[in-house]
UniProtKB/TrEMBL annotation:
The lineage of its organism: Bacteria, Pseudomonadati, Bacteroidota, Cytophagia, Cytophagales. It holds the Pfam family SASA. Transmembrane segments: none annotated. GO terms for molecular function: hydrolase activity, acting on ester bonds. NCBIfam families: Por_Secre_tail. It comes from Fibrisoma limi BUZ 3. Residues 124-333 form the Sialate O-acetylesterase domain. Keywords: Hydrolase. SUPFAM superfamilies: SGNH hydrolase. This is Sialate O-acetylesterase domain-containing protein.
Length: 676
């Protein structure tokens, strides 16, 4: 091997002295602000996964309470010993509460990499189901919750060609949790915080835990609609004689259980329903009881667990202002049936009776606060005994989708690896293509067992940014954590195999690391350093590793003969003769300022912007208005100099904002104009 400076090549064995600065690892799971269901012992299994781009002996994690006055940080716990090939995953037992998650990479008993997730919760998770008084409606006085209560602020409903609202049956997207504010949505169908924001705060006050809600309620549904669609039979809306498409309303309930609650757990399904069965349908006691029991049984079969249900007594409307004894008796029968794991919710027929003309609870200005009374009635029903004796379901399994090239072409076929936790038998799996926001696009592959799955990207796939996720579909439905985003280009282009690059320095050497995936057998890497003239000089060569694995972490060390900044890059020569280059790596002296992030377009249309950040790792982005009020913040795990779409919250007003991008102790600020 020829070079201007004799280098030391290191591939499998690492000996280091003190390092000037931390390199960064990434945390792809848990998602920011998620809540995992606690058990009766106030603990929950917390899966942690991500990538690392410098060698480590082990990955450790701890939880630091958001409110330090109530508890102390947990001890550091091992997530994974001797992780390989740039990927780590593991599960720790976490106490209840709201925390910042800290993850660190350890080498020779020293921290060499670290990352954080700003908010992770262990608390209570609920699914709401029923009719419009469970779904919630805007402009009726809903109150927002504190930051201890979260939802996925998105909607699985759309207007069809007949100007009627429908719900899709597509697989659910990767959720992005946020504080449940008054006018926020509760995915997939909930409108506004309704009573649930207030209920969440009341539970958080009682037990000092965070709370998350999902909502599958749909207006005008009767018990037969839920039972029929659970049995695969389309249901007719009794008010307009049209059929709900996509086997709604049950499809939303099943998808919520399988796509979300299998990962986050659940305390109970909160069922508020019965008004339309009372009037105009006049459903009998036996029929209502039978139909709702069929719904309960199907939900438990589809979730593969004995789900807890909580049923309210609910029957009055403006058209039927007198409580319907048949419906109420059926609800009592479901609650009192032996070994049915159904608990009593509130008696809502006594709230704001008679109802306003629109038929829903309402917080009337200077009048009856019906929505708030509804929240308190639910809180009173969910007693200490309920939380002590009910059967919460917790996540039992985890799937981490492996790395794929950062750039692929339409029409390409590749194999997607994945790793699992908690599987006792070999699963049947599907691979789903998601867009850059994590929403489902199409299925692109199927497989069986724990091996990699062959995936084909259609020739007609539009250029853009996508992700992939592996989903176990049998024997139980478990949704995998997706890949980092990758770009799809026009057919025929070669994939890009560099995932990340890092540098380190000690008193004797400069170290260059690069993480790759799917590079072809026979690939060769050449490390280059920029000379004062600006040209790059080759200083070493590393042969591609062929070991049956898909990702590899390579390393190169150069003796340090002078101080100051250095710029390295890695050249990849592929067997077909083509060449790729890594992002240039700046080895900076301690505390040297980072290059300015690139943000575009500016002005933004208020929905999103794209950012390219100069270092891999955890960045915190925030927007502050000209009055100094922070209106949005979010934590992102990013790759250096890779474009990343950042989605803004709905409802930001037009105007000038200050965007701050923070990495470790370095912060960059610039103006961002929003113009819808």
């Amino acid at each position: 091997m020829s070079s201007l400076i004799k280098p030391l090549l290191i591939i499998c064995c690492y000996v280091f002295f003190s390092l000037h600065a931390f390199a960064q690892l990434t945390i792809s799971y848990p998602l920011p602000q998620l809540v995992i269901q606690r058990n009766q012992h106030n603990t929950a299994p917390l899966s942690i996964a991500g990538t690392f781009s410098v060698p480590v002996d082990r990955i450790e994690a701890r939880l630091v309470p958001i409110n330090s006055s109530t508890s102390r940080p947990t001890d550091w716990k091992v997530v994974q010993q001797t992780p390989r090939n740039g990927l780590y995953q593991g599960t720790i037992t976490a106490p209840s509460g709201l925390f910042q998650l800290e993850v660190r990479g350890i080498r020779t008993n020293k921290t060499v990499s670290q990352a954080t997730v700003s908010r992770v919760g262990i608390g209570e998770v609920f699914l709401i189901a029923g009719q419009s008084n469970a779904m919630g409606l805007p402009k009726l006085g809903a109150k927002g919750a504190s930051d201890r209560v979260v939802s996925f602020n998105a909607w699985n409903r759309f207007w069809n060609k007949n100007n009627v609202l429908e719900s899709s049956d597509k697989p659910f997207p990767v959720p992005m949790f946020s504080q449940l504010e008054a006018n926020n949505l509760i995915f997939p169908t909930g409108e506004t915080a309704w009573c649930w924001g207030e209920l969440g705060d009341q539970i958080a006050d009682r037990y000092h835990v965070p709370v998350a809600f999902f909502n599958v309620a749909i207006p005008a549904t009767v018990a037969e609609n839920w039972s029929a669609t659970a049995n695969g039979i389309p249901a007719k809306n009794i008010f307009n004689s049209t059929y709900w498409p996509f086997l709604q309303p049950y499809t939303n309930l099943r998808n919520a259980l399988q796509y979300y609650h299998s990962s986050f757990g659940i305390r109970a399904i909160l069922w508020h329903h019965g008004e339309s069965d009372a009037v105009p349908l006049h459903t009998t006691k036996d029929d209502y009881c039978r139909l709702v029991q069929e719904l309960i049984d199907h939900s438990r079969a589809d979730f593969a667990a004995d789900l807890t249900w909580v049923i309210s007594r609910c029957s009055i409307t403006p058209a039927g202002p007198v409580p319907n004894q048949a419906i109420r008796a059926a609800q009592d029968s479901l609650i009192n049936r032996a070994d049915n794991n159904v608990w009593a919710g509130p008696d809502t027929d006594t709230i704001q009776s008679p109802r306003p003309e629109h038929g829903h609870f309402e917080n009337i200005p200077n009048g009856v606060q019906g929505v708030s009374v509804f929240a308190r009635s639910w809180n009173n029903s969910l007693t200490d005994s309920f939380f002590d004796r009910s059967k919460p379901q917790q996540p039992r399994q985890f799937i981490q989708t492996g790395l794929v090239p950062t750039e692929l072409s339409a029409g390409e076929t590749l194999r997607v690896p994945f790793a699992t936790i908690g599987f006792e038998s070999s699963p049947d799996v599907s691979v789903q293509l998601l867009n850059d926001r994590g929403w489902y696009v199409m299925e692109v592959g199927q497989g069986q067992g724990f091996g990699p799955v062959e995936v084909h990207l259609p020739d007609t796939l539009s250029a853009g940014t996508y992700r992939l996720r592996v989903v176990a579909i049998n024997p139980a439905m478990i949704v995998g954590n997706p890949t980092p985003a990758f770009r799809v280009t026009t057919p025929g282009k070669s994939g890009r195999f560099f995932v990340d690059q890092q540098t380190e320095q000690d008193s004797a050497f400069s170290y260059v690391y690069w993480l790759t995936t799917h590079e072809p057998s026979g690939s060769r890497f050449f490390v280059e350093r920029q000379e004062r003239s600006g040209s790059f000089q080759t200083i070493g060569q590393v042969e591609g590793i062929v070991d049956g694995q898909f990702s590899h972490l390579y390393s190169f060390a150069e003796p340090l003969d002078q101080s100051g900044s250095r710029i390295y890059r890695v050249r990849l020569e592929l067997p077909d003769g083509s060449v790729q280059y890594s992002t240039p790596l700046i080895l900076a002296v301690p505390d040297e300022a980072l290059p300015q992030p690139l943000v575009y377009p500016n002005p933004s249309d208020g929905t999103s912007f794209t950012v390219q950040l100069p270092r891999s790792g955890t960045w915190t982005l925030s927007l502050t208005d000209l009055n100094g009020r922070m209106v949005w913040h979010q934590t992102h795990e990013v790759r250096a100099d890779q474009p990343q779409t950042v989605w803004l919250p709905m409802g930001l007003a037009d105007g000038l904002y200050i965007l701050q991008c923070q990495w470790n102790n370095q912060r960059h600020s610039q103006r961002l104009l929003i113009r819808h």
